[in-house]
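Private note to self, pasted from the team thread so I don't lose it. Backbone tokens:
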């Protein structure tokens, strides 16, 4: 059970860091043909796309979808870990 707990924690942590890396990459001028940059964008886009559809940008030049995705992932991780540990209230 402990191994499953750690695998889930590490997986969510990696995913959250990839989203943070994508945010940082969006602030700088990067080569989108770079394999690492492409991997980050292709891996995180399926997670961010639903939040982009739910949150209209309007005239605001900021994309808040990574923030909401990170919050959602944190809540989902806590929910899954509580179920695994059997401490769900």
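Design output:
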């Amino acid at each position: 059970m402990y191994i499953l707990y750690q695998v889930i924690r590490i997986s969510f942590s990696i995913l959250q860091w990839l989203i943070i890396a994508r945010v940082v990459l969006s602030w700088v001028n990067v080569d989108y043909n770079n394999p690492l940059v492409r991997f980050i964008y292709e891996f995180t886009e399926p997670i961010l796309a639903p939040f982009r559809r739910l949150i209209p940008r309007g005239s605001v030049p900021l994309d808040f979808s990574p923030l909401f995705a990170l919050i959602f992932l944190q809540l989902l991780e806590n929910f899954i870990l509580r179920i695994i540990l059997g401490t769900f209230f």
